[in-house]
Amino acid sequence: MAGNNRTERTPLLNGDAPASDRNEPRESFGSRFKRFLQRNGVYLIIILLLLLVLIPLIVQTVRSSKHRHHSHDKTPSHDDSPEHPNNTELCTSAACVLASANILHSLAPSYEKLDPCDDFRTYVCAGFDASHEIREDQAGVGNLQIMNENNQLILKHILESPAPKDTSIFWTAANPDQEIFGKLQDGYNACMNETLLASIGSKPLLDLLLELDKIYPAKEPKTTKKDESLTKAVEYLMEIGVASPISVDVGADDKDPDVNIVMVGAPYSFGLPSKQYYERAEIVESYKETIGLVLEALLKEARPGVLPFSSDEDEELTTLSKDLVDSLVALEKSMADVAPDPEDAADVTKYYNPRTLKETEAYNSEISVKHILNTFASDYTPSKIIVSSPEYLQELSKILKSSSRKTIKAYLVWKVVQSWAGAVEDSAVQPLLRFRNKLQGKAPDVKQERWRTCVSTVGNDLEWIMSRFFVERAFSKEAKDLGDQIILDIKDEFTVKLNESEWMTESVRQLAIEKVHLIRQKIGYPTQSPDITNAGELQEYYSNISISATTYFENKLSVVRHDVRESWSQAGKPVDKDEWGMSAQTVNAYYNPPGNEIVFPAGIMQAPVFYDPSIPSYLSYGAFGAVAGHELSHAFDSSGRNYDQNGNYTDWWDEATIEAFKTKTDCFVEQYHNYTVPTKNGRLPINGKLTLGENIADAGGLTAAYQSWKRRDDEKADLMLPGLDHFTKEQIFFLAYGQTWCGKMRYAEWTRLIQLPVLTSDREEQIVQRIYTDPHSPDMFRIKV
């Protein structure tokens, strides 16, 4: 949902873009993937995997008289009593053979000799590690990234194919399908035309900076009136999707989730990924060098007056002073220092501070919230505003008062450059792209294949049109029905678990059960707001967005400005509970506390690694079911527990239940804080408080998924997979869960686990960034759950 990041407060995965890139307008969250597989190697791999399984399958057929009694004492085993015999019938369909091959291919080659309890991550993922390389343009590679790659390849084929015919589920050969498909292709082709983009260069970016200069000139205007130019500059940045010193958003009121309200607070980041980075001298120096190189190069390309950092109108500035860059970064650091820590910024008990407009205005004398509201929502008079951090606004006012106008101007210019540099092809912005690569542990000058960038871009800009064509190609009714069944099963299991939860008082327990029953589940894709199966509705939905095959930068500006207008038009209006916060092709899922809803896009419900209606259900429950349980668990984690059955932020837990919950969660905090990763500066612990909610969700989700599958299996036993006679079905369930999180990162600790050569020091940056900013634990520790 445009402008309301709080809707996606608890996704399964963090975005793959680094935090420093999140200022970019609608920047892709798509991952980078395996080049060989996306071309012509897929079929070769499938053939090899089939051969891998067919050989043991033949052997098994000969040994048809034997039964499987190969359970490990330290992993869950099947009940082999006469009432529940281990099912020896094999599933020999192509889907089952491929699923079995994938599991075997990922396991440690010597798994039969290993104890999974010694190192379960190596047990389930050593084969994956040995058979996957991290490309130079990747920070890492994992099963979920590979799934995303497969989805991107589907979208690439759609975008590069002729317009659809009357031979599909809901495509038609006539308008409006032709129009929306044409808009989709135009957006893609505009992005792909690198020759045209290179000939245009930095001009569109410089045009934005010229407009900013008109609003906030370097020389302070001579007037007796209060200078409102900084507020107007912030409004301009908001209009073009750029983060500024203050964040003003529209979203559901946590205490009245049926109504949209305004929230004011600190931005997500200030330039570097997190406040900790400003304490790292090497990174800060590299960052300063990057700013100097980029802004100085743009100065040389600009017309006179476009970037006037000097207050002297007669001075023609062509060299950026080091002092100015130093003061710019010092300004960023001072704001970051007084901003809330990530765990506090996401804690409703700390950020929910309702204030009147007058009170909000009094916190900061330099930026007028009242002026911003008059600009973006002139017909809306708020009865209250949620000020997520009053202390930040007060400190920000002092910081801005003590900063020179030239420094503030440089800061605003740099925010625009950071946000929009990725939308131009020009050597002037290359130092910024190299610096971002460094923060992600990539080769400095590497770029992902252009088609991947463009698939992600058009998928974000025209997400629901793209969703329509993705769903038609890659999602079936059977897949949707299985998703609904798994989630309903897990809801039932949560009810059982809640009834057995002695740490809850009876009154709280009954309200919790009611909350489970009232959780809304959205599976696959939206059929309202908008209905992606209705081409006419999509045509109307995007009618105010201009897309041309020759204007890539302007296309993105049109999308961003439209989204900002749409978001602000909802201020004070009822919440549209049919909206989705993720497109259908997204490989992710989320729980939305104020909406009390869980959302699972079609993109994450894909075969063969994660989900398939045609294979034994212990695989789908072990992978997708654990994700479904994860999202349901968020309703009762350290954040979700503050919301009642209707999505209201309220004290619905009594003191005894809260104390019992705190006792249990303190153990989680301590456990994960004791997990550390080595860096060149020493071992870095996981933030147990920041990751608390996700760790609770991982543990609760896996337990619920396992018990849900067991109940299903008791009703109708699953077939066994060929080639896996070393395992029971219960054990394969946990293999499916563990292999969901198989992956490699450019990070030195992985060298011990997966026998890779020692990596250079800059390769640790991605994992460091995640520990500072990501509420999810690193994947290897998610496997440990």
TrEMBL record:
SUPFAM superfamilies linked: Metalloproteases ('zincins'), catalytic domain
Entry keyword Zinc = yes
One of its GO biological process terms is: protein processing
Question: Keywords on this record?
Answer: Hydrolase, Membrane, Metal-binding, Metalloprotease, Protease, Transmembrane, Transmembrane helix, Zinc
The transmembrane residues are 41-59
What are the start and end residues of every segment in region (Disordered)? 1-26, 65-86
Query: What Pfam families does UniProt report for this protein, alphabetically?
Result: Peptidase_M13, Peptidase_M13_N
One of the entry's Gene Ontology molecular-function terms is:
metalloendopeptidase activity
- Per UniProt, residues of the Peptidase M13 N-terminal domain are 116-526
Write down the required cofactor(s). Zn(2+)
Concerning InterPro entries, the annotation shows: MetalloPept_cat_dom_sf (IPR024079), Peptidase_M13 (IPR000718), Peptidase_M13_C (IPR018497), Peptidase_M13_dom_2 (IPR042089), Peptidase_M13_N (IPR008753)
Query: Where are the compositionally biased (Basic and acidic residues) regions?
Result: 73-83
Which GO terms of the cellular component aspect does the record hold?
A: plasma membrane
> This protein's superkingdom?
Eukaryota
**Member of which family?**
Belongs to the peptidase M13 family.
> This protein is called what?
Endothelin-converting enzyme 1
Q: What is the lineage of its organism?
A: Eukaryota, Fungi, Dikarya, Ascomycota, Pezizomycotina
